[in-house]
Amino acid sequence: MAAALNGMALHGGVIPFGGTFLMFNDYMKPAYRLAHLMGVQSIFVFTHDSIGQGEDGPTHQPVETLAAMRATPNGCVIRPADANESAYAWLAALQRKNAPTALVFSRQAVPTFDRSKLAPASGVLKGAYILSEAKGGKPQVILMGTGSEVQLCMKAQELLEKENIAARVVSFPSCELFAAQSAAYQEEVLPISVKARVVCEAATSFGWHRWTGEKGRFVTLERFGASAPGNVAMKNLGFTPEKVVEAAKESLKA
User: What is the CATH number of the domain that holds 133?
Assistant: First the structure.
């Protein structure tokens, strides 16, 4: 699939895209890497992006794949949190004329956030943005999530507020796009004065330390997955709002 996309992109006249399970990125690595090396506008659409994929088990549940893809030079990985973010993820891919883009989607259902109460999804174009501000506008802790895990951060924010802990939720669909933003924008989203930070992503924490700092904590996966219904696997492996709250408190005490 990847080789065919690259060939069409080199020929010109179309913007090619193709889709498969995220785990199968390993099988298309040579052509995927060449797309980045050549700088062609191939769009790789990946689904079934985590342990939430479910019963097929660890062989089909990506853990290290996102980190490997993010490490590929000239690349851009976008993992949107809802339908509105998905639309802007496609826009970002179409705007990247001289480089490939990987769009990474979850298998499981995710909520569509009410944008009349939250920030617009156009923030995807900057890689990360303040989805839900802390009560009073002064966060004590920042909760960063991607894809299907953003909803866990939103629920954790509510739980923390009940304990008078002000939490900001940052949707972080693309590390590469955020890294390309100005220092002023990065400071706006992740102010250096707020040391308590949590990353929630159903994958390895590798690569996230750049954005968490020394006091950051992780609700991530440092092992292979498990064969179980997606919601059961997620819960049993620690992806719950309560675990995000626990990590936030640990970061605040660090």
Answer: 3.40.50.920
